[in-house]
Automatic annotation (TrEMBL):
<dbReference type="InterPro" id="IPR036291">
    <property type="entry name" value="NAD(P)-bd_dom_sf"/>
</dbReference>
<protein>
    <submittedName>
        <fullName>3-beta hydroxysteroid dehydrogenase</fullName>
    </submittedName>
</protein>
<dbReference type="InterPro" id="IPR001509">
    <property type="entry name" value="Epimerase_deHydtase"/>
</dbReference>
<feature type="domain" description="NAD-dependent epimerase/dehydratase">
    <location>
        <begin position="3"/>
        <end position="216"/>
    </location>
</feature>
<dbReference type="Pfam" id="PF01370">
    <property type="entry name" value="Epimerase"/>
</dbReference>
<dbReference type="GO" id="GO:0005737">
    <property type="term" value="C:cytoplasm"/>
</dbReference>
<dbReference type="GO" id="GO:0004029">
    <property type="term" value="F:aldehyde dehydrogenase (NAD+) activity"/>
</dbReference>
<dbReference type="InterPro" id="IPR051783">
    <property type="entry name" value="NAD(P)-dependent_oxidoreduct"/>
</dbReference>
Amino acid sequence: MHVFITGGTGLIGSAVVAELLAHGHTVLALARSDASAAAAEAAGAEVLRGGLADLDTVRAGAARADGVIHLAFSNDFSSAEAVARSVAEETAALTTMGEALLGTGRPLVTCSGTPWIPGRPSVESDPLPTDGPVGGRGRTVTAILALAAQGVRSSAVRLPRTVHNNGTGGFAGLLTQIARQSGTSGYPGDGTQRWPAVHALDAAVLFRLALEQAPAGSSWHAVADEGDEVRAIAEVIGRRLSLPVKPLPTEAFGPLGEIFATDQPASSEHTRETLGWKPVHPSLLEDLEKIGA
C-alpha cells in the first residue's frame, strides 16, 4: 500500500515508517518542519509539507493514499487549556481524513490510550472514556470507528501509558523529566497503581497489522507489559539518576496528575490471538535501565 502517515518522525511514528517500508509499503509522511522533512526523507518516505492544522493538506494526503495511519499529537500537557487545544486540533484533522476516505473501503488506523476499568485490566471491547482531561480523544476515536458504516475500514490501536524506546517515552518519560527538574523521582499516591507499557518497535508492528488486517470498526491493545507499579518505575528512575524516591502530591504532576494516580492495567490477549501480534522487545523496567547510560 501507499500509506499516508501523520506523526511519522516521532518516537512511535519513526518506528512505524521503518516497519511499513520493511514490509513492502511506501510512505507519504506529513512533515511540518524542515527537520521533520529531512528525517522522513532519510528514512525513505516521501514528504508532504504541512502540519496537522493544515486541513487541506491533510485531506490531500489521505486522498492520495491507499491507507492512512494517524499518530500526530502536539503532546503539550503544560495546562488543561493546552491539552484541550491539542485534542481539538487532532479532532479536526481526523475528521477531515475520515471524510476523504468515505466510501472507499480503505483503512484508517488511528490511536488512543487504553481505557481504565476499576478492579481489572481493560480489554479491547471496553469503551474509551469520554470525560476527564483527554476525554475528547475518546469521543473522536469513537466517531472515527463509526465510519465503518460509511465505507471506511477504520480501526484504533490503543496505546498504553508508556510507549518507550531506549529509556524514553510516555508517562515514564514524563516521570523522568519531572525527576530531573525537581531533584526527586516521585510518584502520586502510594505508587501501587499500575501502568501498562510497550516498546515502540513492538507497537509499530501492531500498527502495520491493523493497517493490513483489522476489520472495520475494531480496536486493538498495543500492550506488552500489563501493568508495572508506578513506584517500581520511579525506583528505577531514581536509581539511574541518583535521586531520592518518594511520593509527591498529585498536583505535582500537572494536568495529567489525576490520570497518573489511577490504577489502569490493560490486557492484549485478544489482540495477540486475533492478529498474531507478539511483542519481543525489552520491557519497560528493562528499558529504563538505559536512562543516563
